[in-house]
Amino acid sequence: MLVKLTKFTIRGIVGTIIDTIVLLALSTYLFHSYFTIYILAPLISFEVSILIAYIICYFWIWNHRVHNNKWDFFRRIPVYNATVWISFVVKMILLISIERIFHFHVVICNLLALSVSGIINYFISEKIVFKEKPMSEMIKNEWEL
Predict the structure, then answer these.
(1) What would the pLDDT profile of 84-142 be if each residue is shown by its tens digit?
(2) What is the largest CA-CA distance in the chain?
(3) Which of 15, 36, 102, 107 stands the most exposed, by the fewest C-beta atoms within 10 Å?
(4) Degrees (nearest 5) of the Cα angle 76, 79, 81?
(5) Closest Cα to residue 76, out of 85, 66, 86?
(6) How many CB atoms lie within 10 A of CB 139?
(7) Residues 6+ positions from 125 with CB-CB distance below 8 Å
(8) Burial of 38 (0-12, 13-18, 19+ CB in 10 A)
């Protein structure tokens, strides 16, 4: 569990870096209104980081729980994306709350909000998206090799 949590933390750092770079670029160079900076830009940056995070989860963190084929890879994406939206809603509520209370820059609000939503994301990934394979499926997969 500690190894998986460490890998997930690294995934989170990579995702946060990507999320932050995209958010900073959008909020600095492309968007100028409150809505586009505090709502639309975080939405876009989060979706980009979701895709990168999913790839890391599938091929590195929970690779022992997946089937390593195209069908399985693409089958899990909608489930992963849908479950991550739960943590996104938490992130956005926190981001806007932090901004309203403390008036921090959007990037600082985003980093603080990502810290909390990341914990939620881990447990959803562990228990829903990449849940343990049943023993019968594991045995079946062994025989197929």
Answers:
(1) 888 889 889 999 999 999 999 999 998 899 888 878 888 889 899 998 766 556 555 55
(2) 59
(3) 102
(4) 105
(5) 66
(6) 11
(7) 8, 57, 61, 62, 80, 83
(8) buried
Distance of CA 84 to the CA centre of its chain: 6
C-alpha dihedral sign at 120, 126, 131, 132: negative
What tens digit of pLDDT does each residue of 40-85 get? 999 999 889 989 999 999 999 999 899 889 999 999 999 999 988 8
Please state the φ and ψ torsions of residue 67, each to the nearest 5 degrees: -95, -5
SS3 115: helix
State how far the Cα of 136 lies from the Cα of 103, in Å rounded to an integer. Answer: 54
Cα 100 to Cα 80: distance, rounded to the nearest angstrom? 30
φ, ψ of residue 62 to 5 degrees: the values are -110, 30
Tokens 């997930």 sit on residue: 8
Rounded Cα distance between 137 and 25, Å, is 45
Per domain, the residue ranges of the chain are 2-133
pTM of the model: 0.69
| Residue range 35-46, pLDDT digits in tens | 999 999 999 998
